[in-house]
Structures are given as structure tokens and as C-alpha cells.
């Protein structure tokens, strides 16, 4: 199968490596020419969790380009960019989307599907979320942090043939996947959980596992979960998971040694996805006349970190 992955970050590289090892023709698209050049010259380097020696990376050859206009056809598109890049990324590959080549968005943020559906027909869109984790290292190398499940679904909740085909493809390639009739609710659940983990780890500058080691951080994250659930219920969202607290602890334990993607962004002086996570929850809360003070405070703190960056350079 010809697969195009838009976004060469940690998750894009991990999915690309698994799918390429499964004898698929994989092309990654990324605007970072340094990353693209590394993938072109060396392939994707995958380090096992806990492995520190770059020489121990498993190298997986893939194609990589910065300009998707050179791609004329494919069988499946995976969108794995940060939420703030969604519109530009989808516009760049919209010529590839068709009934025979759906776009599967695998992003952790709210509002992406609405943005995508303004560019391509909604019936060509599939939604997904993954609990696979990884950390981008130098060049095109990625450290594989964990083998969490991936869920994919149709926007209308149906179980289609294309959904079954993609799920089988992923599982055959080692990406543990399930179809879901409630993918939108599942996405909300993940955003609620990670809108606690991501900004908390970024503000405190600690690996995810540290967040469950102190009662103060646990209680603060609990307030974020409670506010997020209240907002989701006000929006009429059918939440996929019933015990968000258990999901939070499980996510922290599975990625105990990982730096969250948001913390990686802060440390590398990149924009974060705070607008599509805590920011989105605040916007939905305002739309429904609900207070979400903890999310609003966390949102503002991350915005300040984006502006000033970590360290003492401002002193």
C-alpha cells in the first residue's frame, strides 16, 4: 500500500517505521528540511525505550519530501502534524484525497476535524488517536516510548470496510489498533487526560511519571479532569472512557520516563498545542457558560512559557 504520512515528528516517524517494515511504500512529508534530509539519507532510526546509544537504533528506509506537490497518488493519508499546522498541512495534500484515499487524522487536539472538513469532504475523513509514545531525537531518530493502543473510527460511528482494512493493516504491521464507534468521545477523553499531563509536566519540567508521585500535582490534575468532563458533558459528547482518573494514572505510568510532547516543545523553543487542548476546553466552556478556571490558569501559564522560555536568560 502507498501511504503518505504528513508530519515527521515522533509519532509520524514511529508509524512510518512500523508501516515501512510491513512492506508498505511509505513517504513522509515535513517542512523541516533537516529532518527530511536525514530521512532521505539515513532512513528513520528507532531506538528502543531506555536505549541511549544512537548506534543501537534500528534503521528503516523511507521516502521523505518537503513538498507534497510532487506526490501524485497514494492509498492512505495519515495526518500527524501539530494542531496549529492542520490547515496548511491539509491544503498541501488535498489533491491526494478521494473516496479511494481517505485522510486519517491522528492528532491530540480539539477542533482539527472541523478545520479539515472545511477543506476536504467530511466523508473522506477518518478520526484516530494513539497512545503510542515516542521522543524525537536528533536527525530522523526517534525513541520508542511505549506500545499503547491506537483507535480509529468513522465520524458517523459506523463500521466501514475501509475502517476494517486500515485496522488490519496497522495490526499486521505491529501497530496495535482497534476500530471505534465512539471515536469523537474517545478523542475528547484523550484530550482531557493529556490537558492535565502535558501542561503540568511542562510547567514543572518533569517526566510524566513524576506527576503521580506528589499529592499536590495529583489534586491539580484531578481538577483539570473534572472541569474537562463537565465541559464535554455540556457539549453533549459521549465520552469513550468512564474512569478518566485511571486513564491518567495509566498514561503517566506507561510513559513514566518520557518528556511530554509539550515539554519537548517548550525546551526546544517551539510553539505548543495548548490552544487545541486546554485552550479549546476553555473556548467550549465559554460557549456553554461554564467556568473552567483551572484550565484557564494553566493555559495562561503555558502561553507565558512560550513567550519567555525556560531558564534565566530573561534576568
Gap between N and C termini: 54 Å
- The count of DSSP E runs of length 2 or more, i.e. the number of strands, is 10
Residues in helices, as a percent range: 40-55%
CATH third-level topology of the largest domain: Rossmann fold
What is the CATH homologous superfamily assignment of the largest domain? Answer: NAD(P)-binding Rossmann-like Domain
**CATH architecture verdict of the largest domain:** 3-Layer(aba) Sandwich
* Topology pattern, helix = H, strand = E: EHEHEEEEHEHEEHEHHHHHH
Strand content: 15-25%
The main pleated sheet reads as: 10 strands, mixed
Number of helices: 11
- Radius of gyration from CA coordinates: 19 Å
Structural class: alpha/beta
Description:
This protein has 315 residues and is α/β, with parallel strands linked by helices. The protein contains 11 helices and 10 strands. 43% of the residues lie in helices and 18% in strands. The relative contact order is 0.12.
Short description, anyone?
The chain is an alpha/beta fold and 315 residues long. Helices cover 43% and strands 18% of the residues.
Topology:
Layout: E1 2-6, H1 10-21, E2 25-29, H2 33-42, E3 44-47, E4 58-60, E5 63-65, E6 76-79, H3 86-93, E7 103-106, H4 112-117, E8 125-136, E9 141-154, H5 161-172, E10 177-179, H6 183-204, H7 215-234, H8 244-254, H9 261-267, H10 278-287, H11 293-308
Parallel strand pairs: 1-2, 1-6, 2-5, 3-9, 6-7, 7-8, 9-10
Antiparallel strand pairs: 3-4, 8-9
Helix pairs in contact: 6-7, 6-8, 6-9, 6-11, 7-10, 10-11
Main features:
315 residues; Rossmann fold; N-(1-d-carboxylethyl)-l-norvaline Dehydrogenase, domain 2; ten-stranded mixed β-sheet; 10 strands; globular
Amino acid at each position: 500500500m502507498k501511504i503518505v504520512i504528513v508530519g515527521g515528528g515522533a509519532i509520524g516517524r514511529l508509524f512510518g517505521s512500523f508501516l515501512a517494515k510491513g512492506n508498505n511504500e511509505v513517504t513522509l512529508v515535513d517542512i523541516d528540511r533537516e529532518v527530511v534530509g536525514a530521512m532521505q539519507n539515513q532512513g528513520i532510526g528507532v531506538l528502543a525505550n531506555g536505549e541511549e546509544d544512537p548506534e543501537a537504533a534500528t534503521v528503516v528506509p523511507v521516502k521523505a519530501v518537503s513538498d507534497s506537490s510532487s506526490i501524485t497518488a497514494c492509498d492512505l493519508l495519515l495526518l500527524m502534524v501539530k494542531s496549529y499546522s492542520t490547515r496548511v498541512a491539509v491544503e498541501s495534500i488535498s489533491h491526494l484525497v478521494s473516496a479511494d484515499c481517505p485522510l486519517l487524522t491522528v492528532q491530540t487536539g480539539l477542533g482539527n476535524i472541523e478545520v479539515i472538513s472545511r477543506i476536504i469532504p467530511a466523508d473522506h475523513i477518518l478520526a484516530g488517536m494513539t497512545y503510542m509514545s515516542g521522543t524525537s531525537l536528533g536527525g530522523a531518530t526517534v525513541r520508542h516510548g511505549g506500545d499503547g493502543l491506537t483507535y480509529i473510527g468513522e465520524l458517523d460511528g459506523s463500521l466501514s470496510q475501509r475502517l476494517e482494512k486500515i485496522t488490519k493493516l496497522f495490526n499486521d504491521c505491529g501497530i496495535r489498533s482497534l476500530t471505534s464507534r465512539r471515536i469523537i468521545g474517545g478523542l475528547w477523553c484523550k484530550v482531557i487526560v493529556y490537558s492535565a499531563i502535558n501542561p503540568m509536566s511542562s510547567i514543572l519540567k518533569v517526566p510524566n511519571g513524576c506527576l503521580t508521585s506528589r499529592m499536590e500535582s495529583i489534586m491539580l490534575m484531578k481538577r483539570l479532569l473534572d472541569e474537562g468532563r463537565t465541559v464535554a458533558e455540556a457539549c453533549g459528547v459521549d465520552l469513550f472512557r468512564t474512569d478518566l482518573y485511571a486513564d491518567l494514572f495509566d498514561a503517566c505510568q506507561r510513559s513514566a520516563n518520557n518528556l511530554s510532547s509539550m515539554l519537548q516543545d517548550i525546551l526546544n523553543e517551539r510553539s505548543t498545542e495548548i490552544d487545541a487542548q486546554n485552550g479549546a476546553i476553555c473556548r467550549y466552556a465559554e460557549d456553554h457558560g461554564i467556568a473552567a478556571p483551572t484550565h484557564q490558569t494553566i493555559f495562561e501559564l503555558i502561553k507565558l512559557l512560550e513567550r519567555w522560555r525556560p531558564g534565566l536568560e530573561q534576568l
